[in-house]
Amino acid sequence: MDVIGVIPARYSSTRFEGKVLADINGKPMLQHVWERAKQSLVLDELIIACDDERVFQAAKEFGARVVLTAKGHISGTDRIVEVVNPLDVKVVVNIQGDEPLIHPTMIDRVAQTLLNDKSLFMATIIKKIDDPVLINDPHVVKVVADKNDFALYFSRAPIPFHAANSGVQSPAYYKHIGLYGYTKDFLFTYKNLAVSDLEKIECLEQLRVLKEGYRIKVIETKYDTIGVDTPDDLERLKEYLRENDNKSAQ
Fold first, then answer.
1. CA distance 17 to 10
2. Cα separation of 157 and 177, whole Å?
3. CA-CA distance, 97 to 113, in Å (whole number)?
4. N or C: which end of the chain has fewer CB within 10 A?
């Protein structure tokens, strides 16, 4: 296989337990993610990797291929490694189970970028921030990149900092959308990288990659998402969907 997509779906989320099964318009959130990912044009296989029987049964009911993984995994990356270890595949796409608005072209672009450029090990998605309120929201991860579209840093703080005497009136801010692609070989390297102080400080796992000197290619998308980390995020998502349904009906 060239590309496999894996959706790690942990039930016991610290900030919002059971969020992957939260109801959105009559379907669990995980089903929305899976249905959108199924529209990808490049995935040879799509698997949900979960650690809870409730998630396993829900995924089975809506027709997904699902694997029940060990409960002791610290991160979604560890869960993905367990699933893909026995598989012959070139590129693995980590599709977050709490991103119900994920667009299939994000998956396609990340995968194709890695397939087309053998010098790359890892890629992810960014989106220009249109709502200024999000710049200071710690739940929205910001990213700055170099001229070749490689990430320089990820932060929950507003980066770049806008100095009053900078001479720049409206700097561009970009948010990170937590969809990752890796070569299978690098996925195993990533799993074994040491947890850095930066990762602990920001609570951002991808910082261990930058700390160790590896590069992450960033790919800009025009599509926005609403990641669900808290019950408030879920309500914001539902309101967004209601507004867009009303616009469609007009």
1. 9
2. 15
3. 22
4. C
- CA 195 to chain centroid, in Å, comes to 19
Which of 246, 126, 249, 245 is closest to 179 using CA atoms?
126
Give the separation between CA 27 and CA 22, rounded to whole angstroms: 8
Q: Does domain 3-249 have CATH number 2.60.40.1190?
A: no
- The HSE-up count of residue 6 (CA atoms within 13 Å, CB side) is 27
SS (H, E, C) 187-232: HHHHHCCCCCHHHHHHCCCCHHHHHCCCCCEEEECCCCCCCCCCHH
Residue spans per domain, the chain: 3-249
Nearest to 49 by CA among 4, 2, 10, 98: 10
pTM of the model: 0.92
**pLDDT, tens digit, 9 for 90 and up, residues 133-181:** 999 999 899 999 999 999 999 999 999 999 888 888 889 999 999 899 9
Residues 8/14, Cβ–Cβ less than 8 Å: no
pLDDT digits (tens, 9 = 90+) for 29-80: 999 999 999 999 999 999 999 989 999 999 999 999 999 998 878 788 888 9
| Cβ atoms of residues 47 and 6 within 8 Å | yes
Helix axis angle for 184-191 and 76-84, nearest 10°, is 140
Tokens standing for residue 158: 């507003």
Q: What are 57's two structure tokens?
A: 């049964």
Give residue 164's pLDDT: 84
